[in-house]
Structures are given as C-alpha cells and as structure tokens.
Design goal:
about 475 residues; alpha/beta; TIM Barrel; Cyclin A, domain 1; 8-stranded parallel barrel; two-stranded antiparallel ribbon; 10 strands; globular
Length: about 475
C-alpha cells in the first residue's frame, strides 16, 4: 500500500463551499496557523483571486497582508493559489503583462504553489500561464484536470489532455478536480489509470467534493489506483458541499493499509478549533451528503450552490431553489455544455435564476453570459443553441460589449491612478471599486488574534453596553468573574 499525503482546503475551498467564502477572516486564520503548520499537510489550499476580493469587500482586510502574515506563521508549509484563466478578482480578461505582475506580487508576498485551471481546456493558455508563473519564480505548479460528464469527456480525452500538458517542464504535478462530486468509484477505476498514463510519471492528486456523498467512497480507491495526494477539509469545513473530512479520511486510509504521516494530535486540535469557531459564530457544519442523481445533470459545485441559496434567501425566494436547479440544466444545455467550474457555474446559475424570477427567459442577461456567447472565454464545447444565441445578442448590452476595445496595456492601466502606488495596491484598484479599497485601507492592519471561546462573552458585553438602564453588572461563574460599573 502507498504513502498518501494531504492538502487541506478549509481556508479557501471549504470556506467557499460551506460558508459562501465569507466565514473566515485574517485573525481567525492566523490563530490556528501554528497548529496547522505542525500537522504535516503537503500544502494548504489558501486563496484565489475571488477569495482575495472577498477579503477586501467583506472584511476590509488587505489580502496581501494576510498572505505575508500566513507565510510568516507557516514558513514550511506550501500555500496554494488557484487561478482561472487570464483574470484577477473581476471576471474581465486581462493581458499577459497584467497577469505577470499579479503572479510576481503573489510570489514576492509568499505564495509558492499554484494551480493552473482553464474551464475551456485551452491548452495553450494553460501552458502560457505556467510559463509566466515559472519565469516569475513560482515554486510548485499543478494543473487541474477538471472532471465533468458529457459525450466528449471520456477517458481518452483526459489521457490526451494530460499528455499534452505533461510535456511542459513548467508543470510539476496534476490533480483531478471534481468540483461537483460526480466521480463514482466505477468511473474512477478507468479514469485515474487513464490520467496517470498521460501524466508521464508526474504526481497525481485528487480533489473531489462530497456534494452527493461519492467522494468518501472514491478516495480509498483513488489511493489504491496510484493517487499520491488527497484533498480534505477540517471539522465543519469538511463534508457537505466541501471535500471529505480530514479525520475520517485519515482513519479510512489507514484502515485500508495506507501510510499517512501526519501529527494526529495537531490534526485533532485544528479540527476542534474550526468546530469551536463555527459554534461561536453561528456558522453551519458540513454534513455527509445523500446521493442525489439530479447533480449528474446540473453539476453545480458546492460553493456556487451555497451562494445561489443565499441570493434567493436574500430575495425572499428560497422556495424557488428547486426551479432554479432545473433551469440550470436547461441553460447549460442551451449554452453548449460548459464545464461547471469557475466561472461557468456562477454564469449558468445566475442566468438560470434570472430566467426563473424574471418575466421571461433571457429577458435579463448578465454581461458574463453575453461575453461567453461572444467567445470571450474561448470556444464552447458544443455550439450554443441558435435561438438562445440570437435572443442574447439582440440585447442592447450585447452590442455595447461587442464594441468594447481589447484590454488596456499595463502602462495604460497605471496611468489611470496616481503615481507612487505599490504594485499590490495598484492591482486591487485596477479591478475593484475604489471605495472598497479605500475602506480596506481606512480599516488599517488586520487583527492578529481570535479566540472563539471568548466570542459569547464579547457579544454579551457589546449588547450590555447598548443598555442605558444599566449602571453596573456582574458576570460570575466558576473560575471567572467580571464586574463593570458606569463612570
């Protein structure tokens, strides 16, 4: 049996899948970093351009500062960023110069493992991205081979894709990315050997979500079939629409005779920490998922599923969620079966939601759907339905987007801002609303510490401070006493 390594996804993909990407801030991450550094993870799935945008927009925190602090707290653990095409935070495509600066800043600030993913399987674009990262000093470069179900995505397709990419000296490893958790044990028996034949001996990892309960069954088999690394989540950030729970995965691997060299005490402590945090903040726990065959049609990944629910709930329309999921299947077919990985799940689900809650189908069409039909993301796997294409391109906004000039050069973008900005601040301002970056800067440095056990007390004190009818209060419990009196 094999030695199996682990990549933890709690901070990035687990947070995105279970807590809509908004559940963790910098002090919460830093608090557990020293413990996680002792577990023995091969890497942490730490960030993405989307996660960096959330840090600014939701938490008013500097994502570059977060990266530097995490690197200082975990000097010996690889920190991973997953990227999707030539984009950074916004959905607009950027030129090579801009993306080169993005990767340069990421590397300078401490990122040392990069996942290259292209949802259109654009091999030249993937190779170009890997080349830029390597030239800028990137350490470990991993290609995501995204699994999906369609008439064209058979085992030979994935074998040939891996072989074409494996020839590049700028690609170190591969992982099979199963964002919707669709990979069954039966299909794994043929898919994994096919991908391994294509990788030419380069290491292979597995990243499969638990959305319909298949991943925990597939992981032990993947280890037997030669997968070197499995991706897992801690505590409430495992299971559900996230990835398999770390503790259970380790136990199952060892039961099957595999070797997992980790610090079990540190792993348990990290798991316990995220459980305490979730309880203190009122955040949900991932639970083992039931098999749902409808996912084999719409293929919506966990994070997008959670976000779609939240958006409908905010509109007081959560009861229409089943309709939206049915519409997702229809929209995906009409758009030529895009692979349901970022940004396409977001694009398809948004259009499906507008179709359900609007007066007519495709009466409202987001810019990214128009750009998809115009070919901005590459050529669709299958042709877009002609009637739907005509309907989309008949919108006035489509004509405006068709007239858009190509992305500006890096020099042109810099001229829009005052001189003297750091590269990091420039990159944020170039792709985000200025007022959001201003709010982040005004908030100052992020806090460094967080204790979930103090959260109930701090919440109580905050509420008591609002009471004008209280002149004093006492909190008295075994081992703890607090007295407060007004001036």
């Amino acid at each position: 049996m094999a030695k199996i390594e682990l990549v933890d996804v709690s901070i990035r993909d687990g947070n995105q899948s279970t807590w809509s990407a908004t559940g963790l801030n910098t002090p919460q991450i830093l608090e557990i970093a020293p413990v996680m550094s002792r577990v023995g993870f091969r890497a942490l799935d730490f960030s993405s351009s989307t996660a960096m945008g959330v840090a600014v927009r939701v938490h008013q925190e500097d994502p570059w500062e977060r990266l530097r602090l995490m690197r200082a707290a975990m000097p010996d653990t690889k920190l991973q960023l997953i990227g999707t095409g030539f984009r950074f935070i916004s959905w607009e495509s950027q030129n090579n110069e801009f993306m080169r600066l993005v990767y340069r800043c990421l590397i300078v600030n401490g990122m040392d493992r990069f996942v290259v993913l292209d949802p259109m399987f654009d091999v030249p674009a993937m190779l170009e991205t890997a080349r830029i990262i390597r030239e800028e000093g990137g350490g470990e470069i991993v290609v995501a081979v995204t699994y999906t179900l369609s008439a064209v995505h058979d085992d030979l397709f994935y074998q040939n894709l891996a072989a074409e990419l494996a020839a590049s000296p700028n690609i170190d490893r591969f992982y099979i990315k199963d964002p919707a958790g669709l990979l069954t044990p039966d299909r794994a028996r043929s898919l994994i050997p096919a991908v391994r034949r294509g990788t030419g001996g380069k290491a292979l990892e597995m990243h499969s979500h638990c959305t319909i309960g298949l991943a925990p069954l597939t992981y032990p088999l993947a280890a037997e079939l030669g997968v070197d690394v499995l991706h897992v989540g801690l505590g409430p950030l495992g299971n559900g629409s996230s990835l398999p729970a770390a503790l259970r995965t380790v136990a199952n691997l060892r039961e099957h005779g595999h070797r997992v060299d980790i610090d079990d005490i540190a792993l348990q402590r990290a798991d316990d920490y995220f459980c305490r945090l979730a309880k203190a903040e009122g955040l949900p726990f991932g639970e083992p998922g039931e098999y749902d065959a409808s996912f084999l049609r719409h293929q919506v990944a966990g994070g997008v599923m959670t976000t779609t629910r939240r958006q409908l709930d905010e509109l007081k329309l959560l009861d229409r969620f089943p309709e939206v999921m049915q519409e997702v299947d229809r929209v995906r077919a009409e758009l030529g079966y895009p692979v349901m990985v970022t940004p396409f799940p977001q694009i398809v689900c948004t259009q499906a939601m507008y179709n359900v809650i609007g007066k007519e189908r495709y009466g409202t069409v987001p810019d990214q759907v128009i750009r998809y039909v115009l070919g901005s993301f590459g050529r669709p796997i299958a042709p877009v339905d002609p009637d739907v294409k005509d309907r989309i391109l008949s919108h006035r906004r489509a004509k405006e987007l068709m007239a858009e000039p190509p992305p500006p050069s890096l020099a042109e973008m810099r001229r829009k801002f005052p001189p003297g900005l750091s590269d990091e601040e420039f990159l944020l301002r170039a792709v985000m609303p200025g007022e959001q970056v201003d709010a982040m800067l005004a908030a100052g440095p992020a806090k460094r510490h967080y204790n979930p056990d103090l959260r109930p007390v701090l919440k109580l004190l905050t509420e008591l401070a609002k009471r004008r009818d209280l002149s004093e209060f006492v909190i008295d419990k075994p081992g703890f006493r607090l007295e407060a009196r007004g001036a």
